[in-house]
Write a structure and sequence with these properties.
Elements: E1 2-8, H1 12-23, E2 28-32, H2 57-70, E3 74-77, E4 80-84, E5 90-94, E6 98-106, E7 111-112, E8 128-129, H3 132-135, E9 143-147, H4 151-161, E10 166-171, H5 182-185, E11 190-194, E12 197-204, E13 206-214, E14 217-222, E15 225-228, E16 232-233, E17 264-266, H6 278-302
Helix pairs in contact: 1-2, 1-6
Length: about 300
């Protein structure tokens, strides 16, 4: 099956890219492994996406999917296993078959690293969050914990301190040589617990405690929310050696959405340094869809085809 543009990933970035590419007159397909909407389907409530005071992630995902289908964008439900960019016609090798395109957009997204402790799965979306900006307002005037030892954890703790009553920042290591940001050190309602290792999350219906180990002793924090900030991870293993990636596996882009390979673009959370928000993913996708369309038009013109 051959297309002008194949988009790998059917989340907000991928669907936005597909809509803009289709409106540019291109034959477009989106390959999605699981379900349209991506990570949206795992968010209980969204209240920071422009135009919606409050909407569930599942409903927003369905709206994105309907918008794409109304534009006659083809969805292929398959899993990408390998790619071949050695020729002008790029090959996407999936579990069920192979697909060909003049341009490819990767909108694979990324997923948060998990603590893998008891109670985490139980309270996902019910007190356990991986995005302080997304879910902070749900814990207004409550006590919460942030688990993490890097810049994201520091940023999340600072952000939440303006919303929550008290923020416990639980760092795995002592971090004696770390220069904590002033917004952490100067906030009266942030307490840094150095060398604490999260052990389990407890509660009935909602979170009541985060149990952690420090100096071989078990301790408890009375909190309503636990924000996990230990990094994100993209699913780009099959792109090793095919595109320029960071040491953490994110796609390196140039001029916003262009990758190291001509005719291959990337957008959304799979990109290095990308703001992990729905609104920025949608904007990124629009740019990628237009840039890929320009590339395809140029290829057709050079090949003597009809100029768009």
């Amino acid at each position: 099956m051959e297309f002008d543009i194949i988009i790998v990933g059917g989340g907000p970035a991928g669907i936005s890219a597909g809509i803009y590419a289709k409106r540019a007159g291109k034959n477009v397909a989106i390959i999605e492994k699981v379900v349209p909407g991506g990570q949206l389907n795992y968010i209980s409530e969204i209240n920071n996406y422009t135009g919606f005071t409050s909407i569930s992630g599942v409903e927003l995902a369905q709206r994105f999917y309907s918008h794409a289908k109304n534009n006659d964008i083809k969805f292929i439900f398959d899993e990408v296993k390998d790619v071949d960019f050695s020729n002008s016609l790029k090959v996407i090798k999936c579990r069920k078959g192979e697909y060909f395109a003049k341009a490819v957009i990767f909108a694979l997204g990324s997923h948060s690293r998990e603590l893998n402790i008891e109670g985490e799965e139980k309270f996902k979306g019910k007190g356990v969050s991986y995005c302080a900006v997304c879910d902070g307002n749900f814990f207004k005037d409550e006590d919460v914990a942030v688990v993490g030892s890097g810049d994201t954890a520091f940023s999340d703790a600072s952000y939440l301190s303006g919303i929550c009553k008290r923020v416990y920042l639980l760092t795995k290591e002592e971090l004696k040589n770390v220069n904590y940001p002033l917004e952490i050190l100067n906030k009266d309602n942030i307490e840094v617990i150095k060398g604490g290792i999260s052990s389990r999350i407890e509660g009935e219906g909602e979170i009541s405690k985060l149990i952690y180990i420090k100096d071989e002793k078990e301790n408890a924090l009375d909190v309503k929310g636990v924000f996990v900030a230990i990094g994100r991870q993209p699913s780009t293993q099959f792109l090793n050696g095919k595109l320029e990636l960071t040491d953490k596996g994110f796609i390196v882009t140039h001029e916003q959405v262009k990758t190291s390979q001509a005719g291959v673009f990337a957008c959304g959370d799979v990109c290095e340094g990308h703001l992990k928000q729905i609104v920025s993913a949608v904007g990124d996708g629009a740019v990628a869809g237009l840039e890929a369309s320009k590339f395809v038009s140029k290829v057709k013109t050079l090949a003597g085809g009809e100029q768009d």
